[in-house]
Amino acid sequence: MSEQIELSSPPFDGISSVRFSPKDPNQLLVASWDATVRYYDVAANEQKCKFDHRAAVLAVTWAPDATRAFSGGLETHVRELELETEKIHHLGQHTDSVSSMNFSSETNQLITGSWDRTVRFWDPRASTPEQSKHDLPERVYFMDLAQNRLVVAMASRLFHIYDIRNMKQPEQTRESSLKYMTRALACMTDGQGFATASVEGRIAVEFIDPSPEVQSKKYAFKCHRQTIDDVDHVYPVNSLAFHPVYNTFASSGSDGTVSIWDHKVKKRLRQYPRYNTAIPAIDFNCDGTKLAIGVSYNWDNGDEEAKKLSNTERPAVFVRTVGDEVKPKGWTGS
Hints:
Layout: E1 4-6, E2 15-20, E3 27-32, E4 36-41, E5 46-52, E6 57-62, E7 68-73, E8 77-82, E9 88-93, E10 98-104, E11 109-114, E12 118-122, E13 130-135, E14 140-146, E15 149-154, E16 158-163, E17 172-175, E18 182-187, E19 193-198, E20 202-207, H1 212-215, E21 219-222, E22 225-228, E23 231-234, E24 237-242, E25 249-253, E26 258-262, E27 267-271, E28 281-284, E29 290-295, H2 302-307, E30 316-321
Antiparallel strand pairs: 1-30, 2-3, 3-4, 4-5, 6-7, 7-8, 8-9, 10-11, 11-12, 12-13, 14-15, 15-16, 16-17, 18-19, 19-20, 20-21, 22-23, 24-25, 25-26, 26-27, 28-29, 29-30
């Protein structure tokens, strides 16, 4: 069995998000700056359908039944995508770009975050889908959800942690442990904490329980760096994803690498061979057997650099079969 496949019919522009189905380990959505969401069957290596938008799509997520998905981006609209019929439904809109979205199976609601400094909750089945709007002090960059806990990463290195059953105010307000802009966020599979990453090649491992004993376990480390001709190069960490079974996590960076980390023992388990340009998005599938890797130039070095790209650096989506390298040492089951 080959270690990885490259998907046919990739997007034409930068990849913003890759999201596997919550039910089918072979169904994948890819959102792109080419104003599309593409739906793939990775086992057959075929694009099942494509949803065209009017501007770059920054965020995509699935409904729990996996027959529908949701998308948002620069055009500010929140859309529902019917995967079988290929129909698009307009649910509503923010007043600025939609940057992040998650679906809560606990409350059966879509949650969207935006540069308009709000988080909004939607019920796609309701006649008025927008259910509530919550103002925030800064633009939302990323959100992730573990059970009923929503972690929101904002501009100015701010973090809010909410219980989505009571959105009147955040349970906790934090400042990032990292000195530079937040570039990625992912919640642990067990809901105990989250990892966050910055443009300056660092990852912080955080815990939600506010007790001093638990907070003393948080830490940060350097990664996605390399020394070339005696010069240290530091790259943004663009995406994080926790393994659904083992609670280890993957990170991807503008250095073109993906690493697997065991945050409990503070060790890197594996670094995969380097890809030929930046990796803006990664995601594990629902059974933890595959990792989707979106490879594309992501404008760290401006548009002049983009014009120089060779055909080998055009956007691509790889799906890697993962094995024991994602398993913590001495794993015996939870």
